[in-house]
Amino acid sequence: MSVTNGNGNGAVKAAERPTGAAMKLTAKDFKSDQEVRWCPGCGDYAILSAVQGFMPSLGIPRERIVFISGIGCSSRFPYYMNTYGMHSIHGRAPAIASGLSVSRPDLSVWVITGDGDALSIGGNHLIHALRRNVNLKILLFNNQIYGLTKGQYSPTSELGKITKSTPMGSVDYPFNPVSVALGAEASFVARSIDSDRRHLTEVLTAAANHKGSAFIEIYQNCNIFNDGAFDLLKEPDSRDDNQIRLRHGEPIRFGAAGGRGVRLTGEGRAELVDVAEVGEDALLRHDAHRQDPSLAFMLSRLSHGADGPTPIGVFRDVERPVYDELLAGQLERATAKQGEGDLDKLLHSGDTWELT
After folding, report:
1. pLDDT tens digits for range 180-193
2. What contacts 134, CB < 8 A, 6 or more positions away?
3. What is the pTM of this model?
4. Disulfide check for 63: which of 12, 68, 121, 301 has CB 3.0–4.6 Å away?
């Protein structure tokens, strides 16, 4: 485990600022001096560039921003950000980040993880951070494969996936990360794509403005072990027919000239329809602020992967009590009632034993 800033010196120096004035940061300020070491063509490069370009808009000094990662290709991310960072333990990044967020509410804490790191060994840590609504921003890079360990199937790989560890095809049913997050009652859930910088920046901005846990699944191409997994959503000749862009308050339409859409059936499920056949009034109007997550969950089930029309954007963005503030409130009440605690007295209270 390492704790460092992007320059590897163990501490971030506050930027030199004129007295009484804040220094305006740029994307360059968030680039560390470390050599970026991903495979040429990896989707991680695009995500890194988007995040570095987005960070200045927060108006937060670099010494108050922390990126915490687990293990995997995506988890090299903290080295390349000129902020504080921690390359931590496999699957445990949300737990470590939770402790930091609760103890240092003045920090902006971001978790970088992958489909293997977050949904396999780290599954419990992810869902509990989300259900508690800890003030974290969790970016899950989903390439539907284990890239760092050279191409085994992951928890999001499709049925029948042939890899080095499944030579006859995977028989495991894959997770849908957005569905998992919604099932854990996450207060903010979104999905974006590595190569769509404008859309990714919009989603990152919405997540940063959200109070509490924000979960973003980012479809990320692994051009070495799972190349082209998201081509239907990316290629110019197919993306319009397969990207279902969710916009709060608007009817859900997609396809050429918005000719297709989503409506609710009488059985209470979401289905794809031709707008010309059903009329625009029949379409489902997206409500990201709806407290009940059932509609957002229905939308997440329209596609189990990027193998057909797939929703991207913000599925859910609701207000809920934030874990950090609830815990701080308890501590304040306890201190007001009982005064400052005495650790030595606590350790020697009640029944004690002496070993000889």
Report:
1. 999 999 999 999 99
2. 94, 97, 98, 101, 102, 212, 213, 322, 323, 324
3. 0.90
4. 12
